[in-house]
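Exam revision sheet. Question 4 asks you to relate a sequence to its structure. Input first:
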Amino acid sequence: MGDLEAKETSIEMMKKIMMRNTVSEKVALFVPTMHTQLIFNSLAGTDMVSHLNFLKSLTEFHENLRLNFYTKIFENNPADVIDWKNHKAKFYSLKRGFNWVYLMLPTLLITLTIVVFGVFNLRKL
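Answer key, structure tokens:
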């Protein structure tokens, strides 16, 4: 079973990707263009977190199919034994959510920094 053998490696890879995503989000707080790209990706559902959530759902779906079908396949049961009405098409629904404070934080930080420098420059006049 390739799925079971690759499970540990897959978990390690997901942890590594999540760590990379976390670092990217922290760096993006100081790079507005990067922050904007990450936010747009998140809103569109094309960011790494959405992709990993999809992969987790896909793994669960495949596991359920595997547990259901593999026993029947390896027992050499004909396809007529399976109740096909119980197997319906399934669709993944994206769970969206975002934090307005996180969304606006880099813009607010840059604005406050410019205001502070502006006040200091005005006092020099």
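Marking note for examiners. Residues 2-28 form the longest helix (27 residues).
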